[in-house]
Design goal:
Radius of gyration: 20 Å
Number of domains: 2
Distance between the termini: 29 Å
Structural class: alpha/beta
CATH topology of the largest domain: TIM Barrel
Strand content: 5-15%
Length: about 375
């Protein structure tokens, strides 16, 4: 991998101070650098973004969902999604599929990679139509009686730790997260991550933390809570009182890349992340993209998406967003990004958290 330029000393010092407040956690056989983990997100949590979030305080990360059938058919694009950087310390690979034998074969192939992950995660939370109609993702929640065989078939095929990410249930009439957690424990899984919405909810409404906490209190294995963790103060408050052993952040860090770190701020801190810090994050992300992605159009698209997500709530965000998507090439785009952040004034209130639903259509 090509050399990645360091952050400025000022930014790196802020990162180091807040990273130093993390307390490592062990969930079954899996250890993480801290209790705040990056949730798997389709088309987002590839190697470049995972590396960036580890730099910025994530205690661990999980890949985007990857098809077991794509792995078994040896699809070029699918196999590329399995790439793990030597720099990644606490990463899991998430697989999805409806057939236990196919999942087991794919999991075995992941385990045999030159750089295997720390663990393999089963996707039982994706509510997207093209996944659910095939019987995969959150559709598996509809038949809990089949899960013991499903889990055990995969578990017996590998030596790597196995985990699962679920939703609270298929719909409000079938909340069965605790039942699934108990089956997972019986079949030797290490932990269960729970997104606090049903499959039918998609990403609408609010995450039901009452359900998550009730499962965390009663489950015989570690539970990770996920859903609507977007404000540092709320994350710190949740950490202080939760029965979950860790928390997962999804959409929040897309808007606030320092969210993992800001969740460790105290009232006595004078640490503030300003416009120049956000620009440095995009610079680092661009370098990671260029080191791991071969297609310039993919690099440009990713930078556009992340720049637009990041400026939500900042002055002139709407105008900036329109200009970004009108940019014809990467050099023009990059000039626009640099000028925008350099013109912003640093201050504790330079950014307002908007009230609108952020990325309501998906993720985290």
């Amino acid at each position: 991998m090509t050399s990645i330029p360091p952050f400025s000393p000022e930014l790196q010092n802020k990162i180091d101070v807040l990273k130093g407040r993390r307390v490592p956690v062990s969930l079954g056989r899996i250890s993480f650098a801290g209790p705040l983990l990056l949730a798997p997100m389709s088309a987002i949590t590839s190697t470049p973004y995972r590396l960036l979030m580890e730099d910025l305080g994530a205690g661990g990360t999980i890949s985007e969902l990857i098809s077991c059938h794509g792995i078994n058919y040896k699809g070029v694009k699918t196999l590329q999604m399995l790439s793990i950087s030597p720099q990644e310390k606490n990463v899991g690979i998430q697989l999805f599929g409806e057939d236990p034998e196919a999942m087991a074969l794919a999991a075995k192939r992941v385990e045999e990679l030159e750089r295997p992950p720390k663990f393999i995660d089963i996707n039982m939370g994706c509510p997207v139509r093209k996944v659910v109609t095939k019987g995969a993702g959150s559709a598996l929640l509809r038949t809990p009686e089949k899960l013991a065989t499903f889990f055990s078939t995969i578990r017996q095929a590998i030596k790597l730790p196995l985990t699962v990410k679920i939703r609270t249930g298929w719909d409000e009439e079938s909340i069965n997260a605790l039942e699934v957690a108990r089956i997972a424990h019986q079949e030797g899984l290490e932990f269960v991550s729970i997104h606090g919405r049903t499959s039918k909810q998609q990403y609408r409404g609010k995450a039901n933390w009452d359900v998550i906490e009730s499962v965390a209190k009663a489950a015989p294995l570690p539970i990770i809570g996920n859903g609507d963790l977007v404000v540092p103060e709320e994350i710190l408050k949740r950490l202080s009182r939760t029965d979950c052993k860790a928390l997962m952040l999804g959409r929040g860090p897309l808007r606030s890349p320092f969210l993992f770190l800001e969740s460790y701020l105290t009232l006595d801190d004078s640490i503030i992340f300003g416009p120049r810090d956000y620009l440095e994050v995009l610079v680092r992300y661009r370098h990671y993209l260029e080191a791991h992605v071969s297609l310039p159009r993919v690099i440009e698209t990713q930078i556009k998406k992340h720049a637009v997500w990041m400026v939500a709530g900042m002055p002139g965000a709407s105008q900036f967003r329109a200009q970004v998507f009108a940019c014809p090439d990467l050099p023009t785009l990059w000039t626009l990004i640099v000028e925008y952040f350099q013109e912003l004034k640093t201050g504790p209130d330079f950014r307002q958290v908007p009230d609108d639903d952020f990325m309501e259509g998906g993720h985290g």
